[in-house]
Amino acid sequence: MAAVIAVVGSPALVAVPAIWMFCADEQARQWSIAASLAVVLGCLATVALRQRGTGHRSGADTFAELRPVPGNTPHASGPPTLPARLPARWPAQLRGAAAVFCCTTAFLGFVALAAGDAERPAPVDGIAAAGGAIQDVRVTSVRNSERHNPSRGHDFYTATSVVALPEARTGRSVPATVSTNTPEPLRPGSEVTVLYAPSKPGLGAVQGKPGPLRASLDGAPLTPGARTALLLIWLLGAGFLGGLQILHSGGFRTLTRWTKRDRAVRGRCTGDGISQLAPATDTGTGTEQSGRKETSTKLDQLVIATDGGEVRFVLDEATDGYAERLGAEPLWLCWRARQKAAQQLTPAVLVGDSGWALHGQMVLTEAERLAENNETAIPGGTGAPVDAQREARAWDPRAGWPLRVRRGAMTAAALALVVAGLLATTSLGAGRWWAAAGGVLCVLGAVAAETLSTAWRATEPNASGEKDPPSSATAR
């Protein structure tokens, strides 16, 4: 269900700002955006109906429900073998990056909707219907000229000017009064660029720069400059934040094939919770590498008990209740040895004896402690045999988000969709920015309703930050 909603809802959400920026036909643009928003709203309704039928689930509930079906447990005299190849974690990382991309799209989408207008102004609409054209015309008189000196940018001049509009049939000039905004003061005989209807100059004219006037004539809600700026901010910002999400979840380093740098140890899950990871320090001087005081990093973890002591297996989501659902099944804890000097976490994976694989990270100092005590083995070696015939299925807890997303988050998201629909189909005048601000608050509310309950969980800092198991973990 999560995959279907992502495939259907995400493109529909991304299509809204794209249609707004590039579709010039007013009616087609409004109907297309309304249809896209309806698809996203239908996805929310599907999730709500699913939760109504099955009930709202906690993270621990979905964690247990998404556990791969156990396979045949080997009955060898030693520990079960490791699979020669592990399932990749990139589908889960891609889903997380897509979620961040969609949230960023929602924020920038409201800015784009507020910066434009759903309908052409009445004068421009009439001129366009009569076959409008953009042309330089002569100024015949100027009054009420005023100089403006903004705090940023260059000075400009506004005035009420009378211009001579050539009529297409007779060629005679028809006077028209326009409000002008120019970088230099106007005088009789000056020329300005206006939009008017040559066949009906009596409809008046609109003065401006050629680019914005062409956008108004074509029916585009945004000027070319604003469209380009918003597009760059959207793609670069969303891409950057999506990349940060991938780095937060372990980066592109992953365990799929075994190498000589990999290590494995047998263990069991004995607890879950959160702890603190102290900032990296210089091993020679004991001082922090950056030269300034840094804050600790919160870790959502599973506590794995091995013969060499307890270590932390780190996930990028709240782990409350996971240990109870995981049970006391024996498992392999595998990780990749240090690659960079400042590295504190390394890619790791839990491989259950029943045939599942759960990707995460591990604190390197704890991994090195196990290696110093000769408690580890190299996958494929004597202590950790590898079987090319054995397979492991990926265990991805976040795939169950439709069952555990909060109703407050869905309500806020639905309100944001309604506000976006109003901005895309109605001209609200000066109230557009206020409406867009309300939409942004709704998106923030949806994100906050889903994340703050876990982000604000209080923890006692771990004094060592490295060796001792965290006091905030829930032991089984």
Radius of gyration: 31 Å
Report the total helices: 12
Q: Whole-number average pLDDT? A: 79
What is the helix content? 25-40%
Report the major sheet.
6 strands, antiparallel, barrel
Describe this structure in words.
The chain has helices spanning 2-22, 26-54, 59-65, 90-115, 122-129, 210-218, 224-248, 322-326, 364-372, 401-404, 407-425, 432-455; strands at residues 82-83, 133-148, 156-166, 173-182, 191-196, 205-207, 262-277, 297-306, 309-315, 331-336, 345-352, 356-363, 386-387, 393-394, 474-475. The longest helix is centred in the N-terminal third of the chain and has 29 residues, at 26-54. It is built from twelve helices and 15 strands. Strand 5 and strand 6 (205-207) form a beta hairpin. The chain is elongated and about 100 Å long. It has a six-stranded antiparallel β-barrel with strand order 7-8-9-12-11-10. A five-stranded antiparallel β-sheet has the order 4-3-2-5-6. A two-stranded parallel sheet has the order 1-13. With 476 residues, it is α+β, with helices and mostly antiparallel strands.
